[in-house]
Each structure stands twice: as C-alpha cells, then as structure tokens.
Amino acid sequence: MPIPDDEATRTELEAAAFRRLLEHLGSRSDVQNIDLMNLAGFCRNCLSNWYREAAEARGLAVSKDESREVVYGMPYEDWRALHQKEASPAQAAAFEANKPAH
C-alpha cells in the first residue's frame, strides 16, 4: 500500500511519529541533550524550539516554557533536576567542535 499523499493523512502520520519520538526520548532520560547534540546535531531543546516556531507560524502564542513542557513531558526545570548531569570535559569539547549553527 503506498503512502497516502493527502495532506491530512500525512499530517496525522507525522504527528504520530513525533509523539513516538517524544515517547522514546522520554523513556531515555539517560541520554543527555549534549549527547544528542554531539551525535545528531539536535536535542530536546531544539525540538521544543521547532514546536514553538511552528505554532508561531500559525499565529499561536506558545512560550518557551510551554513548548519545552510538550517535549519534556514536565516543566523543564523539573526534568533538569531529575535527569541532567554536568557535561564531561570530553562532551563539552565535542560540542564546541561540532556546535550546530541553529
């Protein structure tokens, strides 16, 4: 069966994939944002920024904190307190060497 080309179905599939990505990232709180940045060039904060930018492009006011809560599944500061560790010197050096421009 080919992938449907109507926009509504495509949007539903993309939304389902995005929700699955958030679910996966939520289950992998052991993976630090700096690791994601160093390996893939984006992290949970990037996703939240992209979410906020998409909302703003549609005339919806979504704050940075609100978009982060969508991605993290809780307030960002709570997630940081529970899961974020200080970057190792190696992680920080890799980030500086490969820092994305976005």
UniProtKB/TrEMBL annotation:
<protein>
    <submittedName>
        <fullName>DUF1244 domain-containing protein</fullName>
    </submittedName>
</protein>
<dbReference type="Pfam" id="PF06844">
    <property type="entry name" value="DUF1244"/>
</dbReference>
<feature type="domain" description="SMc04008-like">
    <location>
        <begin position="31"/>
        <end position="96"/>
    </location>
</feature>
<dbReference type="InterPro" id="IPR036810">
    <property type="entry name" value="SMc04008-like_sf"/>
</dbReference>
<dbReference type="InterPro" id="IPR023163">
    <property type="entry name" value="SMc04008-like_domain"/>
</dbReference>
